[in-house]
Amino acid sequence: MTIIVASLFLPYTPQFEADVTNSDTAKLVESSMIKMDCNNQELGNNKQERSSSVTSANSHYIGLPQEPQINGEPLPRTTVGSPVTAVNYRNEMEMLSSEQFLEELTANATHAANSGIPQSNKPASSTSTAQRPSVEEFFSAPSARVCSPAQEASASSISAGHATSSHHNDLSSNLMKSPNLLFDSHPSRARSSSKSAVITPVSKSVPDVDPAVVDVAKVREEFQQQASLPSMKRVSGSAAADSSSGSAGSNLRYSEKFHDNFIEDTDSEDDIDSDLETDATKKYNVPKFGGYSNNAKLRASLMRNSYELFKHLPWTIVDSDKGNGSLKNAVNIAVAEKTVKEPVSWIGTMGIPTDEIPHEVCHEISKKLEKDFNSYSVVTDDITFKGAYKNYAKQILWPTLHYQIPDNPNSKAFEDHSWDYYQKVNQKFADRIVSVYRPGDTIWIHDYHLMLVPQMVREKLPKAKIGFFLHVSFPSSEVFRCLANRERILEGIIGANFVGFQTKEYKRHFLQTCNRLLAADVSNDEVKYHCKIVSVMYAPIGIDYYHLTSQLRNNSVLEWRQLIKERWHNKKLIVCRDQFDRIRGLQKKMLAYERFLVENPEYIEKVVLIQICIGKSSDPEYERQIMVVVDRINSLSSNISISQPVVFLHQGLDFAQYLALNCEADAFLVDALREGMNLTCHEFIISSFEKNAPLLLSEFTGSSSVLKEGAILINPWDINLVAQSIKKSLEMSPEEKRRRWKKLFKSVIEHDSDNWIAKCFEYVNNAWESNQETSTVFNLASEKFCADYKASKKHLFIFKISEPPTSRMLSLLSELSSNNIVYVLSSFTKNTFEGLYNGVLNIGLIAENGAYVRVNGSWYNIVEELDWMKEVAKIFDEKVERLPGSYYKIADSMIRFHTENAEDQDRVPTVIGEAITHINTLFDDKDIHAYVHKDIVFVQQTGLALAAVEFLMKFYNSGVNTTDNSRISLSRTSSSMYVGNNKKHFQNRVDFVCISGSTSPIIEPLFKLVKQEVEKNNLKFGYTILYGSSRSTYAKEHINGVNELFTILHGLTAA
Q1: Best exposed site among 320, 912, 925, 1008 by fewest CB in 10 Å?
Q2: Name one GO biological process term (predicted).
Q3: Which of 668-677, 684-693, 1005-1014, 1027-1036 is least confident?
Q4: What is the rounded distance in angstroms from the CA atom of residue 912 to the CA atom of residue 935?
Q5: Three-state DSSP class for residue 770
Q6: Residue 383's closest CA among 168, 528, 202, 227?
Q7: Are 967 and 853 spatial neighbours (Cβ–Cβ below 8 Å)?
Q8: Strands, E, within 730-836: which ranges?
């Protein structure tokens, strides 16, 4: 038995390395069709020699980082993160004061906002950026006011006179081109070949065609076959070196085995470093003087060179930094700790474009992944993948699931073929799962990219054990219904045995959506649809406390903490970490912080808000709006060189730095407008074990449902409330901080990753076993049902419906009653019944569980005894006094005693038991009976429903409109709901009877009657259909709910 985990990206990815001295590679570089990241300057120098018109600092073609130098000598590389190990780098930087760092950092952020391009991705400028150090260097830089002993020692080793201005400029420029240089976590980088560079192919763009007038399939085929210029992608220096040492390059990680835990939108942020999903921002390169030749031979040659390059390049398998980091962490931890004892196999894409890679190489990579990493790759062409992922999943599904309904009809995502791409990628995954599956395996499918996969797998593996988990939010039905393919998506999801969500709210939205859009029967934890039951539960994901705690004890974290204390001495730190997109509420957060400072000016010099933004910006206008507010806030300071109220970092930090910031934070602020489970909150809570800092958390995040007991919940739309909450958090007493933190800590421990894994597999197993049991219970054969209906002439349908009918039910009943005898049985009174079914002509009604029957528009009384009702009412008066909150209702022929609102629910069973015993003993000889159904006590004359059905059988089998009235009196009440006498109802005997309803003491005698009539050959076809619970003695057929029954009936009316 194996657990098959299907996610969009595999935990592992292939990595190619190229020899930068190769002439073919150099030609591709010069033609600006290859982007790569080298480990030295060699290719950069060659490039300058061949193209003197482009300087190394401004090169758009390569952008290779150079080693920082002092007096012409390269600085040695060091290990990660520790301020002490970075001393040699800071010697040259000692000339920059902390005021200069602050000024440069602010300028950096403002410049990035104005351009709409993250500074780390922009080409360096000798005039505007030459002196800007990296964000990490800012954290490691010594303050002019406070220096650590290590820094003082470093400062004394180089005097100001030994460093020239040009040296300073060169070093700053180099740092800007390689911002992670000082935080190289892998010493092996220095040992890498000086002639190698990590390269990655770049996928082609989706063709811009109109499927209404163009054959999309043909255009796509032509587009893929055309001799287009090959392209490759440059990988960042840190990521390349991380990968070359055999581990992922993610900043946020617990260890080399584990990945970024910022789970909720991990895939929405994959475009940080992947050309698989980004081509919206295009950078145009100006060719050297004279341009480049564009003849067919050169183009074909370049294409062959690119293809041959990847054919012969050495490659290795490394950890991938794409995909859902929290899922990978949780599975790896569960396997390591033996929570999951079965072997785990992964199914997903390689994480790189594959069109430029020869098929035989792809095949070798797939074999390697399968053999050594237990990972099975899904290979699809780049256009299909990008159309499915970037166009449909990211531009249609992602915004809609987060209440941001896309409304740009000109976008390629809105064209029909983006849905076609999505279906094809999902089918690829389903086919791969089926090929790997063995009987007894468990299939676990993840997230919104693969919503169609469960049903696709179910069609080929009807007995498989399938689970699906949605890591992002699920909106209300009114939002989800805006999707054009909403039914297909829902049906795809409920192909699983178990569907999991992060919160109870998302689960409830899903159940309501299935009920309203699919007409599925739902209960608190189940969807019943097409003869199957799908378990729907919520299980919030978490982090591993013990592993994170061990990370907090690392020397690098402790050293960074000390540096942060010195850097912001006597300052209150508010830390925030978000993806850069509109749903994170960044602008509203800054506006609230501005309001707080304006209303409390004494805090301007005392508080610093550090906003960490990860992910590149694809919305320059939104970034500009944010930076306008940031500049406004910083202008509140009397001297920005001394006090900067906002530090806006638009790039990720090393994990040790991030943990250190969390440990030293005085508050953590999450102001998202809509978000799933934000695990940064969990990490902050564990990190704040010493300071017990408050957590300000948006009530619109999934995390709020888990952390609501200890967090300060805020409404991000209420700027004034958020401003007040910031002040409350900073002024909170140590006792209240500790009390709140203990509640938060308890929630994190209870909802850790190990428990999440265990819960999910428990739910999957229980749901599968339940379906196996119900599949053996006399399920209705709809084909035989329809065939018997057509083979008979006179049909009688009796439906026991306890709830008010929906518009769909009324419509189907109207169609069915036009050619058949149709009755509805319920406990409703006559007046209520007629009001509910007033729009259905020719329908018959059986009110108050059989006491009254309306035939041909007139009511017949079946009930005989009513004298008992006054005495029963007196009994219930006594019970109501003894059980506050209970009440009873008196109808024409029955009394109902309700206890659902009783104050003391523990006494309800005792009171009900006493009432039933008292009534049944007192009226035993009068044929009056009390029984309980769904926690309601009914008191009524026995056998009324059975007498009503017997009356109807005689009535319609008599041949004429007469009957024995010995016990039936005709009332004078009539109704316009009946139109004329349908004479064909009296021409033949009833030869087809269908009685359906949920199990109860009322309907069981009716099932028994039909069974007896069939056995006596008085009835040709008799169907007794039970829906809901299958605890019935006499029903022969079973379906999951009344909605499923009406779906089958729709087939009859349409035939």
Answers
A1: 925
A2: trehalose biosynthetic process
A3: 1027-1036
A4: 9
A5: helix
A6: 202
A7: no
A8: 795-800, 821-825
**What interhelical angle do 807-817 and 1042-1054 show, nearest 10?**
40
List domains and CATH numbers for the chain: 1-18+219-231+293-398+420-438 (no CATH), 40-191 (no CATH), 472-540 (no CATH), 545-753 (3.40.50.2000), 782-848+972-1054 (3.40.50.1000)
- Tokens for 513, please give them: 């959506």
764 touches 465 (CB < 8 A): yes
Tokens of 912: 């009900």
Model's pTM, two decimal places? 0.67
CB 907 within 8 A of CB 889: no
Rounded to whole angstroms, how far apart are CA atoms 711 and 305? Answer: 58
- C-alpha closest to that of 288 among 43, 42, 58: 58
Using an 8 Å Cβ cutoff, are 463 and 768 in contact?
Answer: no
Q: Which residue has the tokens 């830390």?
A: 575
By C-alpha distance, which of 706, 683, 710, 698 is closest to 756? 706
Residue keyed to tokens 């009877």: 993
Structure tokens, 589: 């957060």
Q: DSSP letter at 848? A: G
| HEC sequence for 424-449 | HHHHHHHHHHHHHCCCCCEEEEECHH
Q: Is 964 exposed, middle or buried (0-12, 13-18, 19+ CB in 10 A)?
A: exposed
Cα diameter, the chain: 122
Quick one: which of 332, 370, 328 has its CA closest to 350?
A: 370
* 8 Å CB contact between 661 and 653: yes
Distances, alpha carbon 813 to alpha carbons 441, 517, 841, 983, 996, in Å: 44, 19, 9, 20, 14
The token pair at 236 is 């960042």
Q: Are strands 442-446 and 3-9 parallel, antiparallel or unpaired?
A: parallel
- pLDDT tens track for 654-708: 888 999 999 999 999 998 888 888 888 999 999 999 999 999 999 988 888 888 8
DSSP, res 624: H
For the segment 880-921, what is each residue's pLDDT rounded down to a tens digit? 988 899 999 999 999 999 988 888 888 888 888 888 888 888
- The C-alpha atoms of residue 449 and residue 267 are separated, in whole angstroms, by 9
Helix (H, G, I), strand (E, B) or coil at 943: coil
Q: Is residue 615 a contact partner of residue 271, using CB atoms and an 8 Å limit? A: yes
Closest Cα partner for 326 from 501, 543, 540, 545? 543
Residues 748 and 682: beta-carbon distance below 8 Å? yes
Q: SS3 of 802, please?
A: coil
518, 530 Cβ separation under 8 angstroms: no
Closest-CA residue to 306 (of 356, 242, 239): 356
Measured distance CA(93)–CA(138) in Å, rounded? 10
Structure tokens at 771: 């379906």
Give the three-class secondary structure for 468: strand
* End-to-end CA gap in the chain: 45
Three-class DSSP category at 1019: coil
Beta carbons of 993 and 792 less than 8 angstroms apart? no
712-765 confidence digits (pLDDT tens): 999 999 999 999 999 999 999 999 999 999 999 999 998 888 889 999 999 999
Look up residue 149 and give its two tokens: 């002993």
Do 669 and 646 touch, CB atoms closer than 8 A?
no
What is the spatial distance between Cα 274 and Cα 615, in angstroms, rounded to a whole number? 11
Predicted confidence at residue 851, as pLDDT, reads 92
Residue 628 structure tokens: 């306008």
Separation of alpha carbons 419 and 417, rounded Å: 5
Amino acid at 1037: E
Q: Are 371 and 240 in contact (CB under 8 A)?
A: no
- What CA–CA distance (Å, rounded) separates 800 from 848? 11
Among the listed residues 255, 246, 248, the one whose alpha carbon sits nearest the alpha carbon of residue 270? 248
